[in-house]
Amino acid sequence: MKESLLSFIRCIFCRHELSLADISAASGSEILEAKLACNNCQAQFPVHNGVPRLVSTQVSVKEDLNTGAKFAVSWNKFSRLDARYFKQFFDWIAPVKPEDLKDKVVLEAGCGKGRHTQIVAECGAQEVVAVDIGDVVDLAYANVGHLPNVHIVQSDINVLPLARVFDFAFSVGVLHHMLNPRCGFESMTKLVKAGGSVCVWLYGRENNGWIVNVISPLRNAFTSKIPGPALTPIAWLFTVPLYAVAKGLMVPYARMQKKAKWLPELFYQEYLAYIGKFDFNEIESIVYDHLIAPVAYYIPRSEVESWFNQKRFTNKVIRWHNKNSWTACAKIEDVPSDSTATAKPEMLFFANK
Ligand SMILES: C[S@@+](CC[C@H](N)C(=O)[O-])C[C@H]1O[C@@H](n2cnc3c(N)ncnc32)[C@H](O)[C@@H]1O
Ligand SMILES: [Zn+2]
To answer: Labelling 248: which of 20, 154, 213, 342 has CA 20 to 30 A away?
Structure first.
């Protein structure tokens, strides 16, 4: 971690500022091994392998911790950073554009291997604080921790150990994996300053009946419970036909349809033609993610609308992405009154049940 993170980071129990203690290893401006101490409630948090660790079973639910552990397996299997992620990221968060990130203080909720952290940092963000609940933070730190404007923190989105300092908060493909997605959304938006903005991308319920009725039961009963290596051949069983249909059928069909407008739209065409441009490894990683996640909600537009139905949000955009997911963005005009609120256990179970 960089010492400059101290101006952002707070205690997860009392929200007091933290100070560095017992630094035992450092490399240049990176503090690798140390403690973060709260002088108010006396809590201490380790900085280990360069990453502050502010996750505690006292404040996080076991389901979210388990999700973090599962995704760490997935991202370590699909660890590469790829130039293609730039376009994919801005497709996901459109209408947000690269130039909107310049000089901004950005919060990334659920960073995985850091593929979007890198993009935001390289778009000229002033600082990017990227959090994830799982040990995947080690991979994110190895991938992007060296960038001068990047801070990787291990923490639960429900209990963000951060001050309200952000101009922009975003989350791609994360909130629907939390036990309580809405609580995660509220927690991250609470840290945005007045005049800042938020953008999230979520799995949609619309058009995804086949996943909800076929894949989710399989995932819940079986594939999210088996060890990572055993999942590999099962993921292949789905990836091979998916890859063949997406690349061999949907991409050429979509091209043909541009000329012959009378051709009917096929089931799931927009999404399959989109991923048909990816290589096998990337499609395998998408399948693997769908199978390994212990929790995955497919969220209807009405639920997304209810999250954004707040007086303090303006310039709202809720966009159906590839006809199977939702991108939702807004400007935040005002901060909520409970400015010092910490996540409370009873908040963790109120929606989506
Ligand atoms: C599908 S991955 C997406 C990662 C990244 N946004 C990307 O698109 O590359 C979901 C990530 O969310 C993280 N996650 C899930 N629940 C979380 C929570 N409660 N707090 C922080 N991170 C969480 C997981 O550990 C995982 O790395
Ligand atoms: Zn404290």
So the answer is: 213
Please work out whether the CB of residue 276 comes within 6 Å of at least one atom of ligand 1: no
pLDDT digits (tens, 9 = 90+) for 44-59: 999 999 999 999 999 9
Residue whose CA is at the smallest distance from ligand 1 atom 17: 133
CB of 198 closer than 6 angstroms to any ligand 1 atom: no
| pLDDT bracket for residue 107 (50, 70, 90) | very high
Mean pLDDT over 104-109 rounds to 98
Distance 14 CA to ligand 2 centre (A): 4
Residue whose tokens read 């493909």 = 173
Percent residues over pLDDT 70 in the chain: 95
pLDDT mean over 20-36: 97
Q: Going by C-beta distance under 8 Å and a sequence separation of 6 or more, which residues neighbour residue 225?
A: none
Domains of the chain: 3-204+299-332 (3.40.50.150), 209-292 (no CATH)
Residues with CB under 5 A from ligand 2 (ion): 11, 13-14, 16, 38, 40-41, 43
User: How is residue 190 written in tokens?
Assistant: 């609470």
What local confidence, expressed as pLDDT, does residue 347 receive?
42
Alpha carbons 234 and 230: distance in angstroms, whole number: 7
Which amino acid would we find at residue 21? A
Best mutation site among 67, 120, 298, 352 for ligand 1 pocket (most ligand atoms within 8 Å of CB): 67
Separation CA 300–CA 81 (nearest Å): 31
**pTM value?**
0.95
